[in-house]
Amino acid sequence: MYGRKVKLRFLFVTLILVTLILTVFLILKSLEENVVFFQSPTEIKTLSELDTNKIRVGGMVKKNSINVNSDEVNFIITDFKNEINVSYSGAVPNLFAEEKGVVAEGFLKDRNFFSATKILAKHDENYMPPEVKEALEEK
Amino acid sequence: MKKKLIPYSIIFIFLIIFVVFYKSLKDTNIYTPETKINNDIPIFSADLLLLNENLTSNKIFELDKFYLLNFWASWCVPCRDEHSILMKLSKNNKLTIIGMNYKDNKKNAKNFLYELGNPYEKIIVDKNGTNSIEWGAFGVPETFIIYNNKIIKKYIGPLNQELMIEIKKIIK
Amino acid sequence: MIYSVVGHYSLILGLCAGLILIFFSIQNFKNSNQLDTKILSFSFLQFFFVLISFLALIISFVISDFSNETVFNNSHTTKPLFYKISGTWGNHEGSLLLWLLVLTLFIFIFLLRTKNQPIRYKILTLGFQQLIIIGFFLFLIQTSNPFNYLFPAPDEGLGLNPILQDPALAIHPPILYLGYVGSSIIFSSALAATTLKMVSSSWAIHIKKWVLISWIFLTLGILLGSIWAYYELGWGGFWFWDPVENVSLMPWLALTTLLHCILVLERKEILTSWVIILSIATFTLSMCGTFLVRSGILNSVHTFANDPERGLFILIFLFALIFLSLFIFFFFHQTSKNNSSNFFWLSKETSILVNNWFMMYFLSVVLIGTVYPIFLDVISSQKISVGPPFYHKLIAPFLIPFLFAMAIGPRLKWIRSDLKDKFYLISLLIISILMSFFIIKNFNINILINSILIFSALYLFFITLRDFFIKKYKNFAQNTAHFGFSLLILSILFNNLFSSEIITNLKVGETYDNSKTKIVFESINQKKEKNYKSIIANFNITNSEGINNKLSPELRIYNQPNITTSEADIKTTLMKDKFIVINLVQNQDYFNVRYQVKPFMLWIWLSVVVISLGGLVSFLQKRI
Asked: Which of A134, C9, C415, C598 lies most in the core, judged by the most C-beta atoms within 10 Å?
């Protein structure tokens, strides 16, 4: 039969292969679970069934739509075709303002109502999140 | 054979990465204003340069009339070159020329007009460049032709004789 | 005006010096008895030219010369002098010029300080480094010249993005770049050593200093960026797994692994392939970071609007370097044949190798998490983002064996060893089990992984702590760094577990009260500074123990450009930070208030400083 060394080496290679496959599997699996998809208000309107996972919604904050009370910020995200109501309790970024691009992360309650857990901040007023840009261009 | 397999496959993988990066670069995430031809013009309100007034866009652009919107700044060298063309176009009464003064200083802008003449009927001040972004302008100089509140033609860079003839054809 | 001209031509002269240097190196390489003195003087000259043009840019910023486009875009006369100067590298053009400055400085120092190495090796390193430098020169002059010229000169500039007007961020880029650029020296020298087939112990000893230098700067650079994000962005966190942050972490992981491999290579000629690949990886990952950040293809909260054309240049440049190094690696590198036979499972090098694999795993997790969205977008044009849970889930469990190997590994001997001091190892193990059990019971931690993590970090903590008191234990540097790491993991864990947060909207005069904390919004003051107006809110916060704190967060409304930033008010004590930040919601009377109690924040910063201190000690240490 084979010598001890060859056997050992064979064992070693299989071990490495198995760990490699396991790691790749693990990474892909948790990628799948932790990925957040982006949708525009129009896409949400046309959804056949509601997504229960965390998603991101992007568009413009509609003019005169921000309304604040003591524990919530409410506003409307629009892509100039469709709109969605967002309620959010949390800290708002500095560049959050009406008629500016916004991306909200959270969960869909129904097709017209979105409960956000996070509003993404930007550093630069001229910077537009790509999702928003694309969604706005499609209109 | 076996020895060469590894280098080749690694090089292949890197090539794929290159292609992917290259493609995503083409479709970059940064908001570079796209050519929005045949799109409605944005709605805005802005200060005027020469008059102490604040106008909304529907006051500036009326329906059924041709407008030429020119983005310019006193610090922009090509703007100087195309200014004579704008002066010529301003004599055409079918066309109203509106200026958008981009990221400029008021005093310099006024000096510029004093020196080279003023082809503009109205000049909108866009001090920080946000208005221009909404319009989808890349920089200065840039020229849009507007009819019925739609952008029907867009020229990036300075105007020249040929483009002037083309513009005259459009408004006929 | 005049400064821009001087700066511009000085850049072009620097580029010429680079071309001349390449020419001389080829000549010198052919008959290599002695290092040509011309090479030394020209590389000094090159550094000098870049320095001149960098100074010219600084002066243009200081005197607010708006005929320079870069100054016009990024400065303003009302800006304080400090930020006028830091504004020089706060923008794309200036930061590239800084890269170039450090690049030329480092290669000059390299030529001066490298003794006892073959001349051909020095010349070849210089040659590779010049390729990088020339690439940067072309990039700078072609696509992002900092001396572009505006006519007529505007009277006033557009101002620096206020979020960048911050002391930590003023020194963050230079420090980080020192780390990045240091890795370029490692890259060139590894390529040169591979070509000349001299990847050996003596080379490892020589390159170790450079590895340490760049490692220290990279560590500190990341720390500064993180501190900045903590108090300026107002999210009350220090690490968000944001792509831009990941991009600086990846070279760090590669560099740390490289550092450990070099330690092995110093003593024994194994792991040569590892060392070469990691040297290449560190620099390409740094470059890749620059590419991803500067081209804007990454979807990050830190992204600033910029120009995709520049990205194309970096991309082509980056891949040219990658293919060049791949070619050199496969063509010239031969693995020594007798390496696998004399591996013994219980030895220092085995434990380092095991941790290398763990590091590679962490690196690939971060890499995949960062670039996966880009790939998916290209392939299926789905827009996604990968959130922190992904990283936590994949990294936390593997930290446990990693920490154990960190604790035990250094105690092993090279080549072949058995465990000594078994008594101490086991007794400390028991102590940490008891300690962590106590902590878990007392504070109701119910996540298994966290409890085991606390236990393993404590174990590393005790072992390294004990080693400080053993005089005969020589490896002080390593011990300091590992001690710092255990402290870091512990502080991060406690910080995550025991942070509390209140977010509410309040009007002036209103009070928020839950059973534990009472927040009274007492008043607001307004203040006018040179380049901004500020609204200062006064809060009185009482916690359950009746301790009173007055905190005054601030909102700054900058005049040029017109941007609002929140300045958090942070009360730092040894054990915890109290952090409050406000934001004004447009057209509303409500202020958005976020109050956080974050334990051990100070310890997170301190432990990173301790880690880099370990590097510094090793750098200053004379080799015994």
From this structure: C598
Note the pTM of the prediction, 2 decimals: 0.80
For residue A122, list chain C residues with Cβ-Cβ distance below 8 A. Answer: 301, 303
What is the C-alpha to C-alpha distance for residues C122 and C113, in angstroms, rounded to an integer?
11
* pLDDT tens by residue, A8-42: 778 888 888 898 888 888 888 887 777 778 788 88
Alpha carbon of C22: minimum distance to chain A alpha carbons (Å)? 41
Give the span between the Cα atoms of B41 and B39, in whole angstroms.
6
Conformation bin of residue B129: beta by default, left when phi > 0, alpha when psi is -120 to 50:
left
Residues A58 and A20 in one domain: no
In this prediction the ipTM stands at 0.73
Strand-pairing partners, residue A103, are A58
Chain B nearest-CA residue for C374:
B24
Share of chain C above pLDDT 90, in %: 30
What are the Cα distances from residue B49, in Å, to B111, B115, B130, C562? 12, 16, 16, 19
List of chains touching B (3+ CB pairs within 8 A): A, C
Could you tell me if A29 and A82 lie in one domain?
A: no
Q: Taking a C-beta distance cutoff of 8 angstroms, is the pair C539, C580 a contact?
A: yes
Q: Identify the CATH assignment for B45-171 out of 3.40.30.10, 3.40.50.300, 3.40.630.10, 3.40.190.170.
A: 3.40.30.10
Residues A45 and A67 in one domain: yes
* Nearest by CB: C586 against A69, A97, A122: A97
C126 touches chain A (CB under 8 A): no
- Domain locations in chain C? 1-165, 500-602
The encoded tokens of residue C306 equal 């910029």
CA distance A104 to A58: 6
